[in-house]
C-alpha cells in the first residue's frame, strides 16, 4: 500500500479501489467475446474484486479505529466466507431480455452491476447481523467469565485456607 493511501480514510481508499475495479473490468472486457460461460467468469471476478475491496476497507477501518488487539483469524475467515459467496449464479436468469442476442456484453454487464450492488448490500447487511450476534454472544461469554473469575477468587482463597489448615494440622501431629 502506498504512503498516500495510508493517509486517506478507509472510505476514500474504498472509493478509489472501487473505481479501479470498475476501470479494470471495463479495460479488460472492452473487446471480450460474448458467451454465457465467459460472461459468468468475468462477472464473478468483478464480484470477488469488489468484495475484496470491501473486506480490506473493514480491516483498515477496524485497525484505524480500534485500540483492541487484532480480531481472531477465524472471525475474519467467517466474515470473508459469508460475503464472498458468489451471487453470479443467482443473477444469471433474469427474464427474456437476459437472452436477447441484441444486447451487448456492456449492456448485460451494466444491468448485472446494478443488481450486483443490491445483492452485495444485502449480503453485507446479513454479515453485519451475524457480527452483531457474535458480539452479543462474546459479551455474554465475557460476563460469564467475569462471574467465574470473581467466584474463583473466593473459592481459591477458601481452598488455600483449607489446604493451609490441613498442612498445619499434619505438621503438628
What does this structure look like?
- There is one protein chain.
- The protein is an all-alpha fold.
- It is built from six helices and no strands.
- The chain is rod-shaped.
- The protein starts with a helix and ends with a helix.
Give a quick precis of the structure.
This protein has 173 residues and is mainly alpha-helical. It has six helices and no strands.
Secondary-structure-based class equals: mainly alpha
**CA-atom Rg in angstroms:** 27 Å
Number of helices: 6
Please tally the β strands and state the result. Answer: 0
Low-confidence stretches: none
User: Can you give the mean pLDDT?
Assistant: 80
% residues in beta strands: under 5%
Distance between the termini: 73 Å
Labels describing this entry:
173 residues, 80% helix, mainly alpha
What topology does this entry show?
Layout: H1 3-7, H2 10-29, H3 36-65, H4 73-84, H5 88-91, H6 105-172
Helix pairs in contact: 2-3, 3-4, 3-6
